[in-house]
Amino acid sequence: MEKSKACTKCGHTKPLNDFYAKSKFKPKGFGIRVRPCKPGPRLQAYCKTCTKSGATAWLRAHPQAVLISRRKRAKQNALKAKLWANANRARRCEQDQRHRAKNPGVYAAYGAARRVRKARAQPTWADPAEIKAIYALAAQQKKMTGDNVHVDHIVPLKSKLVCGLHCPDNLRLVIGGYNSRKGNHTWPDMP
Ligand SMILES: [Zn+2]
User: Fold this and answer.
1) From residue 4, how far is each of 42, 66, 189 by CA, in Å?
2) Ion ligand 1, residue ranges at CB < 5 A
3) Sign of the C-alpha dihedral, residues 20, 21, 25, 31?
4) CA of 51 to the centre of ligand 1 (A)
5) Which ranges of the chain have pLDDT less than 70?
6) How far is the CA of 61 from the centre of ligand 1 (A)?
7) How far is the CA of 6 from the centre of ligand 1 (A)?
8) What pTM, to 2 d.p., does this model score?
9) Closest of 128, 131, 183, 178 to residue 157, by C-alpha
10) 43 alpha carbon to ligand 1 midpoint, in Å?
11) Which string of DSSP letters, residue by residue, matches 29-45?
12) Measured in angstroms, how far is the CA atom of residue 60 from the centroid of ligand 1?
């Protein structure tokens, strides 16, 4: 049996190891070849170097396709992560805490961005004193009951579809945990 073959792209004769095997179950022509004509795996016509550079060139020539597949994979990974987090709540919580401790700047930036959003979402007719009173009530209840009482925006300040207001009518007290579960994807009368 021959130990080397010529690449039809670059024309160099190279050892068989320098060629990728053809995938077995790839339909070709009119049907799937069930039995190979030759024993052993059938090899690609191009050598590994040519196959790789061809792939790189294709990716460079099709940025849109790359973007789509990257988004698709990101979506699948996000779903996987969500399922895992639901099944491993305690460990996810630990991970979050570690990440927070390691990246204080990131979370400070989140907090700052949220404060800016809040300020922008606060209409001029909203009474700041009334808003303050609601937050004070939450703090007081937290102290009294020991529950993690939060002020919740009934319609979220920021989400893909809606932007709620930072005003007394859109605020309510909730026990902590509910707020983080609700996230920014739930609101009354949502579509
Ligand atoms: Zn080649």
Assistant:
1) 13, 34, 69
2) 7, 9-10, 47, 50
3) positive
4) 7
5) 1-2, 24-41, 177-191
6) 20
7) 8
8) 0.43
9) 183
10) 13
11) TTB---S-SSSS--B-S
12) 19
